[in-house]
Amino acid sequence: MRADNSSTICVCRSVRELGIAIGFLVPPVLVPNVEDRDKLAYHISIMFYIIGGVATLLLILVFIVFKEKPKYPPSRAQSLSYALTSPDASYLGSIAQLFKNLNFVLLVITYGLNAGAFYALSTLLNRMVIWHYPGEEVNAGRIGLTIVIAGMLGAVISGIWLDRSKTYKETTLVVYFMTLVGMVVYTFTLNLGHLWVVFITAGTMGFFMTGYLPLGFEFAVELTYPESEGISSGLLNISAQVFGIIFTISQGQIIDNYGTKPGNIFLCLFLTLGAALTAFIKPDLRRQKANKETPENKLQEEEEESNTSKVPTAVSEDHL
């Protein structure tokens, strides 16, 4: 039975970002910027038919291929998690238990701030690029593709680093801070008039911002073990969606009234708050502790406790 492989998990979760990358690249190609509404509706319908076909195929594959759980637990921590899970445990009870965990609550907030900023940036990217570079709809999609592909690379590298170092908090904090730095650089270089500069700064920002997303899931599993990973991941996603809606609406209004720079500064302020809150999260790595608790370690600890308990008796007999 092997230990949890963070790099493998980060790779699997970063595959989700591949769909986002395709979403940046394909729609500008399928739906050109035309004035005729009938032609525009035709191209949009073609895009929706393609999306519906792909989604249906994936649904069929889920029913055929996916299983509830593997035949054998992938790690000792997962095996213990199965054993510790009570059949009478309720969903709401698990959520209430998670919200008593202050470290997880802080992570939910900080993850929501980062992912919400990414969602807002992704949604409004086309508008911001067209604002400064009219007629560059296709390149706007390519910039979004660059952000996500760079983030997938960042997620893989972060996963490999976590496998070797197990420094979950330190890695998360560094990536969060670099996300803030990348966002600041992107904000003040967007209007320079050079599209290649935007590609570089957006890619650098995406390397950390998108790469942070699977890191947040991994850190949440460590903090909430042995609670269900599905519940902790679901709460992170809810936080991301809520902050994403708030940030998208707010930044859109700011861009319409004041321009792109104030809108991006708005996101920078909340990323600063997220980085500060991340520093207060304590690295209580419960899953890693469970993986280290092998039968040999437990036997050694019991022997040490037994020897320790015998020492006072020997001393007292010599004294007598």
UniProtKB/TrEMBL annotation:
<feature type="transmembrane region" description="Helical">
    <location>
        <begin position="40"/>
        <end position="66"/>
    </location>
</feature>
<keyword id="KW-1003">Cell membrane</keyword>
<feature type="domain" description="Major facilitator superfamily (MFS) profile">
    <location>
        <begin position="1"/>
        <end position="286"/>
    </location>
</feature>
<dbReference type="GO" id="GO:0005789">
    <property type="term" value="C:endoplasmic reticulum membrane"/>
</dbReference>
<feature type="transmembrane region" description="Helical">
    <location>
        <begin position="235"/>
        <end position="255"/>
    </location>
</feature>
<keyword id="KW-0256">Endoplasmic reticulum</keyword>
<keyword id="KW-0472">Membrane</keyword>
<feature type="region of interest" description="Disordered">
    <location>
        <begin position="288"/>
        <end position="320"/>
    </location>
</feature>
<dbReference type="GO" id="GO:0097037">
    <property type="term" value="P:heme export"/>
</dbReference>
<feature type="transmembrane region" description="Helical">
    <location>
        <begin position="195"/>
        <end position="215"/>
    </location>
</feature>
<keyword id="KW-0813">Transport</keyword>
<dbReference type="InterPro" id="IPR036259">
    <property type="entry name" value="MFS_trans_sf"/>
</dbReference>
<dbReference type="InterPro" id="IPR049680">
    <property type="entry name" value="FLVCR1-2_SLC49-like"/>
</dbReference>
<keyword id="KW-0496">Mitochondrion</keyword>
<dbReference type="InterPro" id="IPR020846">
    <property type="entry name" value="MFS_dom"/>
</dbReference>
<feature type="transmembrane region" description="Helical">
    <location>
        <begin position="102"/>
        <end position="121"/>
    </location>
</feature>
<dbReference type="GO" id="GO:0005886">
    <property type="term" value="C:plasma membrane"/>
</dbReference>
<feature type="transmembrane region" description="Helical">
    <location>
        <begin position="261"/>
        <end position="281"/>
    </location>
</feature>
<dbReference type="GO" id="GO:0031966">
    <property type="term" value="C:mitochondrial membrane"/>
</dbReference>
<keyword id="KW-1133">Transmembrane helix</keyword>
<dbReference type="GO" id="GO:0020037">
    <property type="term" value="F:heme binding"/>
</dbReference>
<protein>
    <submittedName>
        <fullName>FLVCR choline and putative heme transporter 2</fullName>
    </submittedName>
</protein>
<feature type="transmembrane region" description="Helical">
    <location>
        <begin position="141"/>
        <end position="161"/>
    </location>
</feature>
<feature type="transmembrane region" description="Helical">
    <location>
        <begin position="173"/>
        <end position="189"/>
    </location>
</feature>
<dbReference type="GO" id="GO:0015232">
    <property type="term" value="F:heme transmembrane transporter activity"/>
</dbReference>
<dbReference type="Pfam" id="PF07690">
    <property type="entry name" value="MFS_1"/>
</dbReference>
<dbReference type="InterPro" id="IPR011701">
    <property type="entry name" value="MFS"/>
</dbReference>
<comment type="similarity">
    <text>Belongs to the major facilitator superfamily. Feline leukemia virus subgroup C receptor (TC 2.A.1.28.1) family.</text>
</comment>
<keyword id="KW-0812">Transmembrane</keyword>
<feature type="compositionally biased region" description="Basic and acidic residues">
    <location>
        <begin position="288"/>
        <end position="300"/>
    </location>
</feature>
